[in-house]
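FW: tagging you since you asked about this chain on Friday. Here's the raw sequence from the shared folder, copied in full. Didn't touch anything.
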Amino acid sequence: MSLYRLIVLALVLSAMAAQGQAAVASLICQSTAVQALVRTEGLTERVGEMVFTCNGNIPNGDVGATFNVFINAPVTNKVNDDGMTDATLTVDAGPGTTPQTVRARLIPPGTLIFEFVNWTLTAVPVTTITIANIRVNATGAASRAITAAVSTTGISRIVTNQPNLTVGFTQPGLLTNSSTASILCDGSALPSDEVITVSNLYGAGTRVSSIRVTEGTANGFELRQANTTSGTRIVIRYSGFPEASRLFVPDAVAGSTASEPSSAGDLGLPRALGRYVPGGPGQLLLVRVRGHDANGAGGALMWSPPFGATAPFTLDAASEVILNRGAGLAVYEVYDGSPSILESAQIATFLALPPTGGAISVAQAQVSFGPLSEVRTASTTAPVPRFAAVTPGVDCSILRDCGADYFPKLVVDAPPLNFQAQAGVPGFLGKFIRILNDLGGTMIWTAKIQYKRDGPVGWLRVSREIGVNNASIILDAQPQNLPGAGVYEATLVIDAGALAGTKLLPVILIATEAPKPIVRPLVSKAYNAAGERFATLVPGSRAVIEGLRLGGAQTQLTLDGLQARILTATDTRVEFVVPEALGFRSTAQLIHTADFVPGEPFTVALAAAAPVIYSNGVLNQDGTPNSAVYPEFVGNIFQVFATGLPAGSLGTLSAKVHDREINQPLYAGPAPGLEGIQQVNFVIPADLPAMNSEVIVCGWPANAPGQRVCSPPAVVVLKRAE
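HL: got it, structure written out here
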């Protein structure tokens, strides 16, 4: 069981025991509490005091009790090594007595115990008990109630009319204007003599932008209090400045309640250095801190009025913010101000930078309360006060200048951002978008693309991602970066800051499947079917083409538009019969079509006769291929098979064996059953000796009857009978 629950149980048992002793006299207390406004950024916010006005009759007048306070937020007071906090309970027993103060022991996260509080009632038995200086972690949502439950244990019975008290309400303590988001980085000069004062920076035309900070509650800018390490601080974290940038800020800034508020002239007030009069009614004065750490803690004020001074001070001093890799820190502390008036201040940031050649860049200035800390519980060493790094809200609604003409206002003129495209296919699908500043000031904007979660990215592109005031950009869809067909969604975000506004433009791209690329058949060569070395084709004869992607469920081959009969077809080789109707043409355009996709035309050479005998194409009379193993007797018949001889009316055929012309073959014409192949049968002259010799076949083209065209010779072996 936790210690907290043990305490609660003990209190319950104590109350039950007290109810059983009704005769015991009691001290009756009327309880009240201050309902303080505590800042939602604060980690050590002081809640309101609780006051108990008590009277009654205690035997002997001696009162003794332990007070237990339960807070519904983590208590973050400073504690010592013994676990004692600086939260206090003070007892004032009336005239003639000395008030006594007891410190509380903390039982994390939210229980304070004021142990063994003893006092003696006076003749006027009225006692005032005050519980004060309780600090809590108030971070979280606004408009929450911080409550305290108070009970007692001990020898005296103390009864309150209201043991549960509201001691605080949460509310944001810091608001800013939109100029805190971005600072335009462009070339601007320092004073020629480099004497850095605010007035010299203005005189040199050094680029300046204002940061306005405003209280969210009347005492949001709290001065330094007892038991604290500093007053409320304003921390400005600069980042993103180009190399060679130099930043300068005022050493002190007069706020809205000062006799002359500091102003750069860009937020509704005329340009002014600022004037502060010490000693009078509270005037908001922010003083820069030097020597602070990276969280804005520690250090000392760079300036303060001399003790007892009452004359006005003009605030012209300025100093540099040291940048490291484009980042730096400026810290201001609230030195003076009014606890009952809502105050604001304008902090000028001066940027000196060599000319940038027209290149646009934007740096950032993030504002928060300080010192910043991650310590969210009671601590012996962490600063008080301390704050979480909470981004402030916009202050114009409180100051009633949201529509003022010195603030920019974003207007976006864009067509419907709907695209249609084929997935994977490159193309320019641009939409022109106008970005306008409809009011005043400098409007720095960014254009970013937000893709749907878990969806593809990279299919949109903007021509410019950053700009100043009026400009046009192009939103370009890039369907080549899409994985396939579908409906793709994104959002184009044009962001000009919290005050100027943000526009969210929906983008839809409907992508269809891209057509498959046409892959055409490719013919690389054509030749006589009987020999790859012979590239001339003959009408009516067989031929072969080779290449890529020649096969398919449907194939077709034409020469000069005349369809050829395809005999066999694979992806790399097609054998066909050259159309006889080509006649005596010398060339033709061959087009091969596979699965309805035609290839590029391929030019082939034609002739009426260009015979080639097939390998093993000379058969003996009994049909066996002639060879040294199977020679043929003279006087028997040779059967010669070739392709490329003239077909039909295109010419006549003859043969020759050894030195004997065979002008009247037994048969010369198409080989039966072998389309596109010619057959020549003739008798081997009987007077030839046994020997190795040659056979050729020849064609006599009808258009040139005196020009015999013969095949390369085929080797034959002859024998004679014994």
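FW: The chain has five domains: 3-171, 174-399, 410-512, 522-606, 612-719.
HL: agreed, and The mean pLDDT is 92.
FW: great, closing this out.
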